[in-house]
Amino acid sequence: MGGDVDAGGDFIGRDKLVFGSVETLRIESAIFQTPPPPGQVAPRELLWTYLNQVIMDTRALDLAGVDRRAAGEQQETRLELAAVYTELDTLRSVQPAGEGPDGKHGRTLGDEPFEGGQRERQSALAFAADEPLAALLGDPGSGKTTFANFLALCLAGEMLGLASTNLARLGEEWTPGPLLPVRVVLRNFAAQFHTLAGDPQALWSYLTRRLDQSVPGFDPLLNKHLVEQGGLLILDGLDEVPEGGRRREQVKAAILAFQRRFPRVRILLTSRTYTYQRQQWRLPGFAEAVLAPFSPDQIDAFVDRWYAHMAQVRPNLTEAEAQGRALLLKEAIRRNDHLRELAPRPLLLTLMASLHAWRGGSLPDQREQLYAESVELLLDIWERPKIVLDAHGRPVVQTAGAAEWLRCPQARVKQALEELAYQVHAGQETPRGAADIAEAQLVTALLKAADDPELKPARVVEYIRDRAGLLTNRGQGVYSFPHRTFQEYMAARYLTETGFPNRLVRLVREDPERWREVLLLAGAKAARGAPYAAWSLAASLCPRACTGEEAPGATDADWWAALLAGQLLVETGIYRDLDPAYDVADLETLDKVRGWLRALMEGERLPPVDRAGAGRALGALGDPRPGVGVVNGVPDIAWSDVIEPGPFVMGGKASYEGKRQFICNLIRAPYRISRYPITVAQYQAFVE
After folding, report:
1. Euclidean distance between the first and final Cα of the chain, in Å?
2. Which of 209, 320, 527, 647 is most buried (CB neighbours < 10 A)?
């Protein structure tokens, strides 16, 4: 989202899109009030031009490649960041006493303190305001760059006198005031190191060069302002600095040298957590905090802001319709476990909102289809044009997608990633999170897909290193899928094309916890194309009947397989449209699955949570037990024997002595009562 001072490089004059005016510029520094020497641009004019460049670089949230409908129409595809930005929180570990390793307030960051210590939740804005030297960390898609851009946007907007992006938009938590923002994308800075080798002030020299291109004559004024009054230096993406040639070590040294030159300047650094937690990459004296996932309230706030702004930029969407769609999306997230699991990640929530808008206010009913469409959007994001720097430091738009870069169709790239997902999922040691993918492993997979024997690994690394989407670079030559569910979905796609269903059944019987979600997604994908394939999978999982609580000779693998067969039928919904005249084999499979689920629910095999899952699946498939279902549209009530008239105790009250006095009631006529509470299915029959 935007570059740094070197993005674009054009002088923004009055004939271009401008923000604010020179006359209304809000700046108290006398440095910019001095009259210009003859024939030179006034300092206020230079500052105004610089601030406009900051606004241009940070104001927009680009949806091209995310919202395919927007990209395909001749309409505005860039949302205003300030309109949709939702406040982010951080998590910091708190040690009970003494100083932490960072030497500040006993607070530190890392897996070790988080395991046993307490975690303090604080807004990202308050963290950046409280700490003059701040390292804001987070996983890919957690909002690091978005926060940094929003902060720079509001600070520049305050000086330009903008109505909607200013200190008021930041709120009371931002206490340092209207600091002058200076933005640097560290991967661009690192690309210039071959021309800055040996320069003890390499970072300042880099800024000077870029300012000479975009705002000539501004760097002496900036230097004086930073020395005398300070400012805010935003360093985005330490993790994206390549490690080769001691480059990251040199960048760290350059940052510290800049800090010594400009001690009044506050610094906000962003990096992926995985990279920065390695001790050798940490910057001394920098406080650290990790961005927290969105809370339910933050999710709701984002969705409301998203659709409110969509109503402004899309002429065919009214404000009332936008509010209705926002309500639908929030309700879908609350109801759907899978959506609720993805929504706390800002990138995936943005993806979800884009998909929801693209589909006209709905999401796929089946989660497999949701992942299928999300994968297409993530691939589009991965393939969108990228601004990179050439060997001379000039910005170049890299427009070639994987098809051109690797000289093979996108379908081949997707197949390679599917096989890679299967491999890393099979070998992952921990059952949580997405697996780490070594750069060499990813490069090998893409080289295998490429139709170019001359393609070099370095060329593939050049293409994938700074791209985000279906795969993200976590730093240190490590990649991953954006969420474990996408890894499982891609592995499922691979298995539907290789030995389905026998190989999949064997995997799930050997390790049901690892392959449970993969099997369900693979079955759902198969069912969407051909329901008989999903029935074949269910039959392979549950090949024999079970008539009692303990099937003779049944192993835990048999019980797990039967449970997953039931959950598969529920997930796909293929059991709903069976025809007794034609679907005899499928009806037999359904009866087998029901028998196993009933035995599983009533017995003691598998953990209680899984037995409860068996009960839910059985309820959806049609519980055959008398008294809990519906027969011919009428609740099938299992009545008790006749209960004769007589007294019974119900209720009571406390006596003046504090003792409980029970109330005796009298039943005057014989009656019957259901053996079980009324079930949802039975109540639905009453409603209908």
Report:
1. 52
2. 527
